[in-house]
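Box S1 | Example of a co-folding query
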Amino acid sequence: MRDGKDVQSFITSETESIRRRVGTARVLCALSGGVDSSVAAALVHHAIGDQLECVFVNHGFMRLNEVDQVRALFGDSLKMRLTVVEAEDRFLQLLDGVSDPEKKRKIIGEEFIRVFEEEAIKLGDLEYLVQGTIAPDVIESGTSQDPMVKTHHNVGGLPEEMNLQLIEPLRDLYKDEVREVGAALGIPRIILQRQPFPGPGLAVRCLGEVTSTKLSILRQADAVFQEELQRSGLANEVWQAFAVLPGIRSTGVTNGARTFAQTIILRAVTSIDAMEAGVAQLPLSFLESVGRRIVAEVPEVNRVAYDITPKPPGTIEWE
Ligand code: XMP
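Box S1 (continued) | Returned holo structure for xanthosine-5'-monophosphate
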């Protein structure tokens, strides 16, 4: 780990400090199914066992079949106490008419907390909220030394007033270190190797206003890309790969007739800690076949492009 930290001593000292801080209180964990919140949940579970209640909020911005996968992995395989809250309508209504990326992030960040506060009361007056916040989330949301890049939903997106006290055991770690801690805690590879997925989910990949129609187009296109990456074995070569719906329509031709339809941007990057990223050198023939499948299977799309921007100057996500 960085700064000469040793994984086992990190786990031991965090375990002790979590136990000291919460005593016999019950604690809620905001589980997204991603690497960070899974490792945070496992670390706190290691410290306080069944005093931990995990809550997964389905905000409606998850990828195809993802909610069922999370339920199966965490509730069934890892035997953590898990509540799934279906909150799709609520998030979509709040985003109605909102197109500014920072406003979208703040609305989603605040609403997450409101749902967790409600669940904390339902589950029996829980006082603490575990989040899988990691160092880049804090840095990019802006600190006294670092200018703001974007408000990560779990840092800059938090409301000023909230009833839950935060526990963020991974706040000083980078993703590669988080994966090391997860491996030492025995988290299965299938979870640790999951691509990072932003808390606001597809809402920040559906540029501008978010609607259920746009989400459905994006979800279908993204599923094709993920499936092809897995099938070709290229999934292991990228840090993150996903589809973006920029909301641009362009002229095309199908069966000799004009079309005027949506564009999908494919983005795939390599990285070590998400602070910088390179463009994944996926074979052009592979990208072309993904594009062909998307256009054939998603009727609202007639054009597919590949993003060739490293970070910086681009960020990994488009919003
Ligand atoms: P950017 O787009 O800032 O992303 O280059 C860096 C990494 O962070 C993920 N990301 C987020 N993760 N909440 C999160 O938990 C967020 O609000 C958020 N925004 C971006 C992104 O997917 C990439 O891995």
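The two ends are 30 Å apart (CA to CA). The mean pLDDT is 94.
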